From TrEMBL:
Pathway assigned in UniProt: Purine metabolism; GMP biosynthesis via salvage pathway; Purine metabolism; IMP biosynthesis via salvage pathway; IMP from inosine: step 1/1
One GO molecular-function entry: guanosine kinase activity
Similarity section: Belongs to the carbohydrate kinase PfkB family.
Alphabetized UniProt keyword annotations: ATP-binding, Kinase, Magnesium, Nucleotide-binding, Purine salvage, Transferase
GO biological process, one term: purine ribonucleoside salvage
Protein name, entry field: Guanosine-inosine kinase
Domain of life of the organism encoding this protein: Bacteria
Occurrences of domain Carbohydrate kinase PfkB (ranges): 135-298
Residues binding ATP: T282, V283, G284, P285, D286, G287, G355, N400
Length: 432
């Protein structure tokens, strides 16, 4: 595993040493460090359109619109005729996240979902595989007779994203294709709330089964909320799911408000922390928050300027490392905030995938902690049940940098790793 940053201190674990056996593409739970992602496998078709185009096909702006196969084909045909399509990408919020994770960590991840049993050139399944990292293990996908999903991302001149989604067979994933041993050996399980929309489809039961396996084996479980309207429609069911199984909750400010009724991001995060260990909250041009818990004995005060907002002096302990709330003898809440890297790109053509990029960086840090603990269990880095390798503030920097990379390109997935970041004075702080 490639660690997140340059590690030239005593806790650094060298990754340049030759491995004793040849690497395999398939995950080996007893040997590998990896994360597992469960997703609706879908290909994104990205196009720039006018508001009139949306009205023509009765597509509601800014929302995820489910359309039938015929409507999707008609939209695609018209986009092709007008020359509006910029590219095809493998999509899905979790597919994006685990792809980015494998690029950042230069290591394995596992994708659970469906895939067309027969793949032809130019098909959605073909585009999906072509745009997914070779380090993503697809050996546990469920074969289906039809196509995977096709999501058409329609971007208007104001930068707003609207989705027209033709599901295909993407929601046919069943519980028989949820491998307990693979989840049990993972550093984390990550999935999304989208399957809750499909009450009559097997993917919902498959997602619940995966969450139960992760909970049973004490594997950190990460959930992303999808969209504001999904949260509003399934709020009670989501809250029940979060309280029962979720360790890390990722969302934007609109989804946080829909879940808590609080418009202030800090106040919303504070409320959600009563149910989960970590909250990753992106707030668009205002940057992002990473919030969680640490034990009072393990808290570390920041040397950065103290900030106040919805909570006074909220970032005072941001040099602390995230911990599992139930493992803290005296848990305290920790909040960290960061503005967009370099003020954000000069021109943002597509915001699709920015939040997924931030989450992949957090997952990288969680898995790095898992890897280091498995390899050097007696290290002082593991003197307490920490959930991540770095501090809240350092993870914020890393997630922010990955989001910037996504925003600076016209694609929802990283095509290459990031330049190694320099370790800050904060790292030296932790060595004292």
């Amino acid at each position: 595993m490639k660690f997140p940053g340059q590690r030239k201190i005593k806790h650094y674990f060298p990754v340049s040493q030759p491995k004793p056996v040849l690497p395999t593409s398939e995950v080996q739970p007893d040997k590998d460090t990896y994360i597992v992602g469960l997703d609706e496998t879908i290909v994104d078709v990205v196009a720039n359109v006018s508001d009139e185009f949306l009205n023509t096909f009765n597509i509601k702006k800014g929302l995820s619109n489910l359309v039938d196969a015929d409507t999707a084909s008609a939209i695609y045909k018209e986009l092709t005729a007008q020359g509006c399509i910029s590219d095809h990408f493998a999509g899905g919020t979790i597919g994006n996240t685990i792809h980015n994770y494998s690029v950042l960590a230069d290591d394995k991840s596992v994708l659970l979902g469906v895939m067309s049993a027969n793949i032809t050139l130019g098909s959605p399944a073909y585009h999906y595989i072509c745009h997914t990292s070779s380090k993503v293990d697809m050996n546990h996908l469920q074969g289906v007779p039809g196509d995977i999903g096709r999501g058409i991302t329609l971007i208007t001149s104001d930068g707003e994203r609207t989705f027209a989604i033709a599901p295909g067979d993407m929601d046919e994933l069943n519980t028989d294709h949820i491998p307990e041993n693979i989840i049990a050996g993972a550093a984390a399980l990550v999935t999304c709330a989208y399957p809750l929309r499909h009450q009559g489809k097997p993917i919902k039961s498959a997602m619940i089964e995966a969450l139960k396996y992760a909970h049973k084996h004490h594997v950190p479980t990460v959930l992303t909320l999808g969209t504001k309207h999904l949260v509003e429609e399934h709020k009670e069911e989501l809250l029940k799911l979060i309280k029962s199984y979720v360790s890390v909750l990722a969302m934007n400010e609109l989804e946080a408000e829909a879940l808590t009724g609080l418009s202030d991001p800090l106040q919303a995060a504070n409320a959600i922390l009563n149910h989960v260990d970590i909250v990753l909250l992106t707030v668009g041009p205002d940057g992002m928050y990473l919030c969680g818990h640490t034990d009072d004995e393990q808290k570390r005060e920041t040397t950065n300027p103290i900030k106040s907002g919805g909570l006074a002096d909220f970032n005072r302990w941001e040099f602390s490392r995230p911990m599992i709330r139930e493992a803290c003898s005296k848990p305290i809440k920790v909040f960290s905030h960061i503005d967009p890297y370099m003020g954000g790109p000069e021109k943002i053509r597509n915001t699709n995938g920015a939040g997924d990029g931030a989450l992949s960086a957090l997952l990288h840090d969680i898995s790095a902690n898992h890897f280091h603990k498995e390899t050097i269990p007696n290290s002082s880095k593991h003197s307490a049940p920490f959930l991540a390798y770095s501090s809240f503030a350092q993870i914020c920097k890393y997630s922010n940098r990955v989001s910037y990379e996504i925003l600076a390109q016209n694609a929802s997935r990283l095509s290459r790793g990031l330049p190694e970041r320099e370790d800050s004075l904060e790292e030296a702080y932790w060595e004292r």
